[in-house]
Amino acid sequence: LINHMSEAVAAAQKSKKIAKAGPGRQVRLWVRAKFLSFRRSKVAQNTNQTILRLEGVNDRTAASYYFGKRVAYIYKTHSGKAENRFRTIWGRISRSHGNSGAVLARFATNLPARAIGSTLRVMLFPQRG
C-alpha cells in the first residue's frame, strides 16, 4: 500500500493537482477516476451506482484504501451566471468491483448518461483511521 501511495503521489505531481501546505510541503487533494459504466445486470441498470477506474490503482487491496471517500462529478451548465456555472453531483465509494482495482460508487442523484467516459474527482479526505 505504501508503494502504491508513492506511485500515486508521483502521478499527481506530474498532473499538477497538488496544493502547497506550509513551507515546501505538498498535499494531494484528489485523484482522477474514469466513469466506466453504471452497475447493471442483463436486464436492469442501476443509474445511481457507477463503476469507476481509479488512476494508478490496479488491484483490489489498493482499491480498499479509497472505500468511503467522496466522489464529485463536476459539469458545466448553460444557464446561470458566471459564478455558478459549474455544478457538482456527489457520491461515495462503497466497495470494489472485480480484482483489477475498479470500484463501485453510489450517488445521491443519478449521473447523466453523457457522463460515461468522463473524469470524476475522488477526494482524499476525510481519512479513515
From TrEMBL:
Q: Which Pfam families match?
A: Ribosomal_L35Ae (PF01247)
Source species, domain of life: Eukaryota
Q: Would the keyword Oxidoreductase be found if you checked this record's keyword annotation?
A: no
Entry-linked Gene3D superfamilies: translation elongation factor selb, chain A, domain 4 (2.40.10.190)
Q: Mind telling me which SUPFAM superfamilies this protein's record contains? A: Translation proteins
Q: Name one GO biological process term.
A: translation
Q: Where are the transmembrane segments?
A: none
Q: Does the keyword Metal-binding apply?
A: no
Gene Ontology CC: ribonucleoprotein complex; ribosome
- Gene Ontology molecular functions: mRNA binding; structural constituent of ribosome
> Which of UniProt's keywords are assigned here?
Ribonucleoprotein, Ribosomal protein
Classification via InterPro entries:
Ribosomal_eL33, Ribosomal_eL33_sf, Transl_B-barrel_sf
Which HAMAP family did the record assign?
Ribosomal_eL33
Q: According to its UniProt record, which protein family does this protein belong to?
A: Belongs to the eukaryotic ribosomal protein eL33 family.
Q: What is this protein called?
A: 60S ribosomal protein L35a
- The species is Noccaea caerulescens
